[in-house]
Design goal:
This is CDP-alcohol phosphatidyltransferase family protein. InterPro entries: CDP-OH_P_trans, CDP-OH_PTrfase_TM_dom, CDP_ALCOHOL_P_TRANSF_CS. One of its GO terms (molecular function) is phosphotransferase activity, for other substituted phosphate groups. The protein has 237 residues and is mainly alpha-helical. The chain has one domain: Four Helix Bundle (Hemerythrin (Met), subunit A) (Up-down Bundle), CATH 1.20.120. It contains nine helices and no strands. 29% of the residues are buried.
Length: 237
C-alpha cells in the first residue's frame, strides 16, 4: 500500500490527480491487499518470494493506470503518462516468470497473481478506450471475469487447463495492442479494427479452453457411467 501511495503521489505531483483518481487508486490498493492476504493464507506460503515482489511492483503501476482512467471520466488526463505507465506495466510482464524460474520459486499463487494483474490492466485499458471506440471494447476486458462468474454455476469450468504458449502470447499481444490503441497514435477507425481483431482472437482462445474443459467433462461422465456396476432384475436386494 505504501508503494501504491508512492505511485499515486508521483502522478499527482507531475501530471495531476483529481479526487476521483485518488479514490480509485486507494480502492485498488485495498482490494490488492485483501486479495493477496487471502491468497497467501490459503496457499500456506511462508514468504512472498522475489517473483511475486516483481508482480506486485507491476500491480502498483496498474493501480496508477486505474487512477488515471478514473480521472479521464471527469477531467482531461495526461495521455502520455497513462500510456507510459501502462507500457512499463506491460513490459514487465514475463520478468516475474523468469525470476521465478531462475530462483526456483514458481508457485500456483504466483501464476494466478500474474494472470490477475494482466486481466485488470486489460479491463482498465478497455474502459478507457470505450470512451472513444464504444462500449463494445469492454467485452475484451470483461471476458475473463465472465468466465470466472460462469465457473461459479458450472464447476467444470474451474478445471485445470493445459499450459499453452499461445495463450501467453495472445495475452502479451493483447496488452500491447491496447496500449497502442490508448496512445492515440492510430486513427480511431484503425484502432477500432485492431481492437476488434483482438476481441476475436481472445474470444477464440477462451472458446478453445471452454471446449477442452467440456470435452474432458464428457469423457469423465462416460468413464464413470461405464464403470458403474449393472444392477439387473433380482439384484436390488
Amino acid at each position: 500500500m505504501v508503494a501504491q501511495f508512492g505511485v499515486l503521489g508521483v502522478l499527482a505531483g507531475t501530471v495531476g490527480l483529481a479526487p476521483t483518481g485518488w479514490l480509485a487508486g486507494v480502492a485498488f490498493s485495498i482490494a490488492t491487499w485483501v486479495f493477496l492476504t487471502g491468497a497467501l493464507h490459503r496457499s500456506g506460503a511462508e514468504s512472498f518470494g522475489p517473483a511475486n515482489a516483481v508482480t506486485l511492483a507491476r500491480c502498483t503501476l496498474v493501480g496508477g493506470v486505474t487512477a488515471l482512467v478514473a480521472d479521464s471520466f471527469t477531467t482531461s488526463v495526461h495521455v502520455g503518462a497513462l500510456v507510459g505507465v501502462a507500457f512499463v506495466a506491460w513490459l514487465m510482464d514475463g520478468i516475474d516468470g523468469q525470476v521465478a524460474r531462475r530462483t526456483g520459486t514458481t508457485t500456483a499463487l504466483g501464476a494466478r497473481f500474474d494472470g490477475e494483474v494482466d486481466s485488470i490492466l486489460a479491463l482498465v485499458l478497455t474502459v478507457y478506450l470505450a470512451q472513444s471506440l464504444g462500449g463494445w471494447v469492454i467485452a475484451i476486458g470483461a471476458l475473463r471475469y465472465a468466465y470466472v462468474v460462469a465457473g461459479w454455476a458450472l464447476p467444470w469450468l474451474r478445471g485445470d487447463l493445459p499450459r499453452r504458449q499461445s495463450r501467453s502470447a495472445i495475452a502479451a499481444a493483447l496488452g500491447f495492442v491496447l496500449v497502442v490503441a490508448a496512445s492515440g497514435l492510430l486513427p480511431v477507425a484503425a484502432a477500432g479494427v485492431l481492437v476488434g481483431l483482438s476481441l476475436g482472437v481472445v474470444s477464440w482462445s477462451f472458446g478453445r479452453d471452454i471446449r477442452f474443459l467440456y470435452r474432458r467433462r464428457a469423457v469423465s461422465i462416460r468413464t464413470a457411467s461405464a464403470s458403474r456396476p449393472f444392477i439387473g432384475v433380482g439384484q436390488h436386494s
